[in-house]
């Protein structure tokens, strides 16, 4: 099932993306298939990369003579995107591997009902956990957050869930901090203005809003120890150890050890197989184009397309990967 119409509701936006990315606009077509992609806030990685993925799809995917017109739509990221897919009100959504698994299995924030219609298209890029404080802060380690005001993101977001995961690993609860539920962009402003002590973020490197903040204000990323990372991974095995390289942000002279997980592109079981097949093909056969227009685009690759996926693949995506010789369970 998919939305089909004679008029593209996002033609102007798509043309703008074409010009910015140096890509050609899709040719006019009488019959079009809409493919909306729920992303995140404009200050993260989901939205800009999602926009480029949408453009690649629009330029390359066609089903039965109808062009697939994809659009990236702003939103509240992983958890909210899972809910949109549950309702069938969007064709695809970007989300962390942990949230996809929790939603499909009905655990954590989804313990009131599993989202069993989720189907994976493929893995995109690694998302890095970043805990940001002001450079002059007395917060040196995670446990120093006790009693501080910390933005964990909107209730129900992937960052909110992540914060709870890490708190639990340190035998802390949300009551141990002054939790702030601002959006990512609002949290950046609040830290800059001194209204919060720290914020959690998860995204590709460099994260634009943190990059902008660090270019005008002195900030610091908290580094986790191997023992702290091991504590988190005991209960949440999706997380991996990663490093934010020195120099990723202004004033960051040393590498920062932290956690990471992979972002996935997810659809629902009501999407037509041939549409998802063409979407999957367009993405993974044009990864070189993505690498030229976004720093995280280089991580969208066929070789890693099945990493961290613990929910069923959509049949359309499965067919494409099998044709390319990938081992699909």
| Helix-strand makeup class | alpha/beta
How much of the sequence lies in strands comes to 15-25%
Terminal CA distance reads 25 Å
The major beta sheet can be summarized as:
12 strands, mixed
Q: Could you give the count of β-strands? A: 12
Query: Helix tally?
Result: 11
CATH level-four homologous superfamily name of the largest domain: Periplasmic binding protein-like II
Second-tier CATH architecture of the largest domain:
3-Layer(aba) Sandwich
Question: Could you give the topology of this structure?
Answer:
Layout lengths: L2 E3 L5 H11 L10 E7 L7 H15 L1 E2 L2 E8 L4 H10 L4 E5 H9 L12 E17 L14 E3 L6 H12 L8 E3 L3 H9 L5 E6 L4 H9 L2 E3 L4 H10 L4 E5 L11 E13 L4 H12 L2 H7 L21 H9 L6
Parallel strand pairs: 2-4, 2-5, 7-8, 7-9
Antiparallel strand pairs: 1-2, 3-4, 5-12, 6-9, 6-10, 6-12, 11-12
Helix pairs in contact: 2-9, 5-8, 9-11
Protein name: TRAP transporter solute receptor, TAXI family
InterPro entries: TRAP_TAXI
Pfam families: NMT1_3 (PF16868)
């Amino acid at each position: 099932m998919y939305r089909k119409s004679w008029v593209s509701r996002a033609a102007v936006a798509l043309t703008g993306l074409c010009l910015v990315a140096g890509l050609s606009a899709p040719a006019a077509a009488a019959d079009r298939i809409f493919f909306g992609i729920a992303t995140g806030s404009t200050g993260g990685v989901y939205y800009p990369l999602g926009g480029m993925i949408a453009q690649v799809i629009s330029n390359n995917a066609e089903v039965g003579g109808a062009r697939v017109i994809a659009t990236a739509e702003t939103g509240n990221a992983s958890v909210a995107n899972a809910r949109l897919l549950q309702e069938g009100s969007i064709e695809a959504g970007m989300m962390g591997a942990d949230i996809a698994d929790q939603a499909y299995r009905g655990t954590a924030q989804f313990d009131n009902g599993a989202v069993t219609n989720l189907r994976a298209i493929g893995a995109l890029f690694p998302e890095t956990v970043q805990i940001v404080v002001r450079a002059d802060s007395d917060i040196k380690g995670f446990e120093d957050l006790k009693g501080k005001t910390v933005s964990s993101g909107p209730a129900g977001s992937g960052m909110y869930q992540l914060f709870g995961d890490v708190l639990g690993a340190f035998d802390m609860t949300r009551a141990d901090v002054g939790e702030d539920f601002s959006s990512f962009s609002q949290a950046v402003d609040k830290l800059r203005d001194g209204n919060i002590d720290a914020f959690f973020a998860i995204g590709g490197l460099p994260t634009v809003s943190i990059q902008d903040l660090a270019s005008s204000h002195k900030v610091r990323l908290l580094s986790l120890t191997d023992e702290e990372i091991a504590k988190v991974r005991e209960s949440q095995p999706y997380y991996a150890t990663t490093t934010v390289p020195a120099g990723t942000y202004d004033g960051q002279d040393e590498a920062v050890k932290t956690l990471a997980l992979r972002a996935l592109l997810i659809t629902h079981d009501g999407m037509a197989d041939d549409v998802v097949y063409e979407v999957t093909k367009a993405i993974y056969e044009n990864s070189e184009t993505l690498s030229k227009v976004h720093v995280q685009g280089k991580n969208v690759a066929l070789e890693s397309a099945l990493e961290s996926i613990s929910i069923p693949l959509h049949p359309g995506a499965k067919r494409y990967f099998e044709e390319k010789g990938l081992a699909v369970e």
